[in-house]
Amino acid sequence: MRIATWNINGVRARLNFVALWLAERKPDVLALQELKSEDESFPHGFFADLGYEVHTHGQKSWNGVGLVVPQGRDIEVIQRGLPGKEDNGSRLITAKFDSITYTSVYCPNGKNPDHADFQMKLAWFDALTEYWSDLIQEHPASAIGGDFNIVPTSRDTWRGKEGDGEMFHTTSERDRLRSFVDANLHDLYRELNPGSVQHSWWDYRGGAFERSQGLRIDMIYGTPEIRARTESVQIDRQYRERKEEMTPSDHVPVFADLAD
């Protein structure tokens, strides 16, 4: 089973990019973030023509998450929106399929430590940890993929330890992410690639991609049951490159292969 995540940064701007990736990687489920599309205007027909169906929790112009699965797969959406944090945007969707649950999550950016959105971000993570702790009581084989907007450690940023304390690198943010992971989760990429230094996001500005000035903020986390089945995890760096004059997202897909 192949599970994946990708902050697409506007689904309509990236349709052909997604089509290329789906044809090449053939995931069993793809978590999308930053759809920037309401549910009723989402391009379901485009995905249907490719053999996929998409379950969405959308929002006009901002946010929005979805789960892309091959047509005909037995899937049940069990949660749309983070309980108690609906006013913070459409940022979470969870579905049950086969023997697991999978969640697509788009965590708040927070802007900067002096902005009101920063405290909202920290509170949002507290609510996410509470939601996750409850979820795995009923569904112990669960995974979550998405844009977490936090750099886990200094080796996950091009700045190294010099980045400590900056936005996405603050102690407050990392403490919240660590508390979430401590709710019985494993960082699948890091555990299977312990010595790797790879990134999943590069700013569009300043030639950041070409200069390898990126951050690893897109992750797939799994419970011990998921971790035991995980055979490999890859960050799909090549999908940050322009293809056939199509502009890529500033994020790349991350995918994990699980034993059946």
Question: Would you mind describing this structure in some detail?
Answer:
By secondary structure, the chain is an alpha+beta fold. It is built from six helices and 14 strands. The chain has helices spanning 15-25, 44-49, 116-138, 171-181, 188-192, 224-229, and strands at residues 2-7, 29-33, 52-57, 65-70, 75-80, 92-97, 100-106, 142-147, 186-187, 201-202, 214-215, 218-222, 230-235, 254-258. A six-stranded mixed sheet has the order 3-4-2-1-14-13. Helix 3 (116-138) packs parallel to helix 4. The chain is globular. The N and C termini lie close together (6 Å).
Q: How are helices and strands ordered from N to C?
A: EHEHEEEEEHEHEHEEEHEE
Low-confidence stretches: none
**Strand arrangement, major sheet:** 3-4-2-1-14-13
Oligomer: single chain
Count of helical segments?
Answer: 6
Content-based structural category: alpha+beta
Shape: globular
Number of strands: 14
C-alpha end-to-end distance: 6 Å
Compute the CA-based radius of gyration: 17 Å
